Amino acid sequence: MDKSQVILFICGLVIWNLPGSLLSNTKQCYDELGCFDNGYPWNWLLRPFPSPQSPEKINTTFYIINRELKEKLYFQTWPKIDTSHYHVHKPSYILVHGYYSNSDVDWMQNLTNAILNKKDANVLCVDWSKGSTTNYIQAAANIRIVGAEITRVVKHLINFQMANAEEFHLMGHSLGAHIMSYVGKNITGISRITALDPAQPGFQAKDPAVRIDKKDAKLVDIIHTDGKAFVPFLGLGMTVSVGHIDFFVNGGFAQPNCFLDDKPFIKSIADIPKITLDVLYNLASCSHTRAPRYMIAAINGPCKMWGYRYNAKYSHLEYSNFIINKTCTKESCSLMGLDTQNYSARGNFAMETSGSYPFCIEDKKSDIQMENIDNADAKN
Q: Which residue intervals define the domain Lipase in the entry (predicted)?
């Protein structure tokens, strides 16, 4: 997000927190996407969200790329789904951006390249920029339509092209993480959802129907990078564990080189207009956008990014107490990246990084320990 986009985001949240929000329970129905009820849990006293805008307004668009295509092509989904460039027997990765963004954002392009360098796969990039470039609350409501659009496409690939649900890996950043949760809730057997710092405002501590949850796929892994309270710290990411695996990177709340020497303390929403634009931008963007960059680094290397189980009794703000030890076993370490599902450990994992790409801090001891475990398993 650039500076003007951050301001629009903040203004949307200010409006959302003003008293007198209008609550309405209406139902909107669209051919092939179904009906969208705007009652509880989508819209209620503690979550006064509007109805989503129409599919035509949001204009969800798909692009496909694979090793043969070299560059992404428009993937037709209306009125019919064109699968001429889709390889049904190859794994599929679907990527979606978050608030006030689009499918040309650097992380989506870099993540696509990283995936295709490692996997002979289909990559579908989803663009909902026309639905995301509005105030935050409306954009957060619009993600229901985007989730339904992706669900429709994936169901078609499974039901008519004989694709396997277990070959789909869904990845979304911020609001995009919750978009992918809606796909997983409506399609049984999705292999994996990777949630890249899922959006907090309007989702944390809310009904699992509206947010990412570990029941949404066979494996749900979360990368937390900006998990601090929105008030007073302007945190944009969820602070709590919601997946099978939750990576809390550098404590999960503030990333290296994203710190400010003079941090404002926000007592209420009313304090936000008093903060300078540069400070507001750095607070609201830097750590939140680090999550997809960590995923890219984990895939590309040059070293492995291990997560170490931490003691849940400590607050996530007490990062110095996070890591119990760095002795890796099957149950104490997990690996960030495309191969996370190959490791059986589940729970909360701490990870340290540097402040610049490629971020990873080499740990040869853990590499050797886990390699020995892998070799022992291969012999059995």
A: 28-345
Q: Given this model, what pLDDT does residue 160 score?
A: 96
Where on the phi/psi map is residue 100: left (φ > 0), alpha (ψ -120 to 50), or beta? left
| Residue pair 146/181 in contact by the 8 Å Cβ criterion | no
Distance CA 354, CA 337 (A): 17
At residue 126, what are phi and psi to the nearest 5 degrees? Answer: -105, 130
Tens digit of each residue's pLDDT (9 = 90 or more) over 35-78: 999 999 999 999 999 999 999 999 999 999 999 997 999 999 99
Tell me whether residue 101 is one of the annotated catalytic residues: no
Burial 284-320 (b: 16+ CB within 10 A, else e): bbbbbbbbbbbbbbbbbeeebbbbbbbeeeeebeebe
174 is catalytic: yes
Task: For residues 239 and 291, give the distance between their C-alpha atoms in angstroms, rounded to a whole number.
Answer: 14
Architecture of domain 23-378: 3-Layer(aba) Sandwich (3.40)
Q: Which amino acid is at 158?
A: I
Banded pLDDT at 234 (limits 50, 70, 90): confident
* Catalytic residue chosen out of the listed positions 173, 178, 197, 244: 197
pLDDT in tens, 80-101: 999 999 999 999 999 999 999 9
Helix runs in the chain, H state only: 3-17, 55-58, 106-118, 129-132, 136-159, 175-186, 230-233, 277-285, 290-300, 364-379
Strands 92-96 vs 73-75: parallel, antiparallel or unpaired: unpaired
Residues 6+ apart with CB under 8 A from 359: 293, 294, 297, 305, 353
Question: How many residues are listed for the chain in this entry?
Answer: 380
Half-sphere exposure of residue 26: CA atoms within 13 angstroms, side-chain side: 11
Residue pair 168/151 in contact (Cβ under 8 Å)? The answer is: no
Which candidate in 169, 288, 334, 363 is catalytic? 288
Domain boundary assignment for the chain: 23-378
Q: Which of 101, 103, 132, 174 is catalytic?
A: 174
Q: Enter the DSSP assignment of 271.
A: G
SS3 13: helix
